[in-house]
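Q: Give me the 3D complex with adenosine-5'-diphosphate.
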Amino acid sequence: MKISIRRRLTFSFLLTVILSIVTAGLISNYMIDGRFNQYLKQTHENKIQKVVKIAEELYDSSEGFEGIDPFEMKRYAVLEDIYIEIQDADGSIAFSSGQGHLVHKKRMGNMMGHMMGRRMMERIGEYIEEKHPLYHNNSKIGTIHIGYYGDWNLSEGDVGFKNTLNRAFGLSVGIALLFGFIISIILSRQMTTPLVKIIKAANEMKNGNLGIRAEVPTSTLEIEQLANSIDYLAETLQQQEMIRKRLTSDMAHEIRTPLTTLQSHIEAMMDGIWDPTTERFKSCHEEVLRLKKMVDSLQDLAKLEQSGQQVNKSTFDLSLLLDRIVESFQVQAQKKNIRMLSHIAPNFTVHMDPDKLKQIMYNLLSNAYKYSDENSSIEVALTHDKNNIILTVRDEGAGIEVKDLPYIFERFYRGDISRSRETGGAGIGLAIVRGLVEAHNGKITVESVKGKGSCFRIYFPIEMLVSKKES
Ligand code: ADP
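A: Here is the predicted complex, encoded as structure tokens.
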């Protein structure tokens, strides 16, 4: 059976309160009981000693126990709730207080016993009689019998004290339970109200409303993190949805354009309107190439999405590799009279995948070239800081609009659509770059100003730098 968090929290809290009160109560009751009984025993023993001492002091060497004032002695017995009987050395009774006054005590004791439970009744109800020898000048002069009801002859005050203690315990249990209940309800409500809101938001998202946000003001860290994660999820899904819609329309358009051209060309030639010249076949061939390029891009993407990128690391000189890439790019750059600037720190021996690095550089440089105007410059730099190897590709080209910046690493996302079409991109170059960088545990960032240029920076963990010889 499923149980709601609110109910579970309330029950758990109450159970904890009950268990702690009962445990604390039992332990303190047990300890107080022990101390109290010890105290009663001590008091009782003192009382008996006192009676014995009084009896011994009343003895007279010549008159024996004759001089005892029976009224005074009886008064004492009544006061102390005990039966006193003094026998002289012959065993004849010199004084007896009688047990009449104890009857009342017995009855009262039973009554209290009913009020306080069986244990107390047993203690008070049982009649006990102790026998002690009496001495005078170290010789035995007789015996004294002291009788009473209950183990240690509990006085009314003692019973009252125990009673109060039990009542206080009961009262504190009740109050603690009440507080526990109120606090548990407040606490569980504080926890569950934001959770319910988050569930509502998640359900809305499930039903396609990706604009919803789980805005829950809460002071609970984990709940806040959960709400943030849900919001992030909604945001990402919304972006993906937007990219997907854009991709569908882009792809349809991209495919339709060459197909329409091919269709019209071929139909015109079939109908004899056009002569099948080499020029016309060349034009058709270009359209087929365009289609093929698109399919190749899709294949690259599929590879990217395969279970992570396979990285074949080896140790090589990254500075040298970059120098070569820049050099080989010079030829292409010259077509637009673009200057290739190189700020590559020398002798960086690294442990990475050289092929993947080449691909990263090729994609970034191709973009820089594609989006650069004539007579501008492209810079490639390699440095490092405490934690990272830093690779930079900077251009003075078209730049990227602020609204496009968060999405350019997404698959099939293209900034300026018309311009991209012109440049023939399919919007996956940067997605591949990011995939390859992340496969090296690195990260890529971009800074760009529309019309001024872009700067792509890649950070690889410094652990990949095997050695760096200063030259
Ligand atoms: P594409 O094949 O369209 O170039 P990419 O994934 O390589 O696809 O790039 C995505 C988008 O990022 C591009 O459409 C373009 O708008 C923008 N972009 C990438 N590199 C640059 C750059 N160096 N300068 C300006 N815009 C760029």
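A quick observation: The chain has eleven helices and twelve strands.
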